[in-house]
Amino acid sequence: MSGLSIGQVADRTGLSVHTLRFYERQGLLTQPVRRGSAGHRVYSEDDVDWLGVCIRLRASGMPLTDIRRYTDLVRAGQGNEVERLEVLREHRERVLAQMHELDECLQLITHKVAVYEGRLGLRDNVTDCALP
Amino acid sequence: MSGLSIGQVADRTGLSVHTLRFYERQGLLTQPVRRGSAGHRVYSEDDVDWLGVCIRLRASGMPLTDIRRYTDLVRAGQGNEVERLEVLREHRERVLAQMHELDECLQLITHKVAVYEGRLGLRDNVTDCALP
DNA sequence: GTTTGACCTAGAGTCGGCTCTAGATTCTAC
DNA sequence: GTAGAATCTAGAGCCGACTCTAGGTCAAAC
């Protein structure tokens, strides 16, 4: 219930106060952030929760413009669930593709690591082959 | 054996000719690219293979400066395997961390997708809860 | 009553990673 | 031999996502 200052939200989310203001300007919040006495931002728990979602989406590579589009849909309220679903499904596909790519990279690295360990005698039975 | 033009390498790797020249300037190639008669670049199969490695490393989020550092080690030749190993292991940790993050994001998205599908009646038995 | 620290706005600056331009040269096909 | 495509260099430009600065307000602690 409380109402949190921008500094408190920064502490909780790990975003800087700069970034919090920046995200607000970019329209990443579902409601305009409430203001207290002196025009200071007062964040609700819901705001913080939503920021958590944004952080996850960013961490998974969604560009700010897309997060904004999604936020716009949520802000608009009920009636656009189909569009929201579309955004989410599309992003899920991208995330899956990204995981797949990471996995391929991981195999490459793991292989190289094994080969170097073999070379250095840190490990036996490694079939050494073309490098690098 | 052949020797490939920059255009051919662009086709094969999916990088643009601009990017290929840029990567070269950034020192991402283990050998200076051979030049033909008129000063045109002539890439070897090894160059293309190495570019493939760079592409993988980039795709997994390694910054150009780190790829460059690693390339420098490879270019320097034998004797620095320990350092190469260190670079690779560090990157592997980052990749694993990134996969973990992606997985968490995937769970969030999948959950939201399920809830919206439930709301839209596309699916039954979904325990609807706090959204967005 | 003044100093300290958190906050405000508007706007400028930075950084990574490309991407493009200009102006010149060279190769390829007719 | 000439038009059109591909290449070259050097350097400028762009975009996304922050990050910081300047100049100011305000509350609380000393």
Automatic annotation (TrEMBL), chains A, B:
GO molecular-function term, one example from the UniProt record: DNA-binding transcription factor activity
Record's protein name: MerR family transcriptional regulator
Keyword DNA-binding among UniProt keywords: yes
Top-rank taxon, per record: Bacteria
Keywords: DNA-binding
CDD domains assigned to the protein according to its UniProt record, in alphabetical order: HTH_YyaN (cd01109)
Source organism (scientific name): Nonomuraea phyllanthi
